[in-house]
Amino acid sequence: MNEWKNVPNIGRVLAEDLRKAGIGSREELIALGSKSAWLRMKAFCPEACISRLYALEGAVRGTPRRALPEAAKIELLAFFHAQKS
Questions:
Q1: Residue 35 in contact with residue 53, Cβ under 8 Å?
Q2: Rounded to whole angstroms, how far apart are CA atoms 13 and 67?
Q3: Contacts of 17 (CB under 8 A, 6+ apart)
Q4: DSSP 3-state of 45
Q5: N or C end of the chain: which has fewer CB within 10 A?
Q6: Cα–Cα distance for residue pair 8/71, rounded to 1 Å
Q7: Is the pLDDT of residue 1 over 70?
Q8: What pLDDT, on the 0 to 100 scale, is given for residue 85?
Q9: Beta-carbon neighbour count of residue 9 at 10 Å?
Q10: Which long-range contacts (CB under 8 A, 24 or more apart) does 67-70 make?
Q11: Residue 2: what pLDDT?
Q12: 3: pLDDT confidence band, cut at 50, 70 and 90?
């Protein structure tokens, strides 16, 4: 988990899920993007929620998920709901 130690929003559980999804570093997460990373995680973790998607986006941006711009939250929420269809 050391590779995730100083990345906002990434705790022990989310770091383990990222590892299971084949994402081993913040650089890999940035290259993949939060949406694609979330989809990978959702494949084995059906309870992946919007909070997790926000956390991943915050990790990509280097900011706490609660500090994401409102426009980003709206876009991610639309993406999240589109995956339910």
A1: yes
A2: 21
A3: 41, 45
A4: coil
A5: C
A6: 20
A7: no
A8: 62
A9: 22
A10: none
A11: 75
A12: confident
Angle between helices 70-84 and 34-44 (to 10 degrees): 40
State the Cα–Cα distance between residues 52 and 41, nearest whole angstrom.
10
Quote the pLDDT of residue 84.
Answer: 80
Reading the block at residue 25, the tokens are 């570093």
Angle of the 12-20 helix axis to the 50-61 helix axis, nearest 10: 90
Give the model confidence (pLDDT) of 21-67 as tens digits: 999 999 999 999 999 999 999 999 888 999 999 999 999 999 999 99
- Give CA–CA dist 3/25, Å, rounded: 6
What predicted TM-score, i.e. pTM, was given to this entire model? 0.94
What topology does CATH give the domain 2-84?
DNA polymerase; domain 1 (1.10.150)
Domain boundaries, the chain: 2-84
Residue holding tokens 């130690």? 5
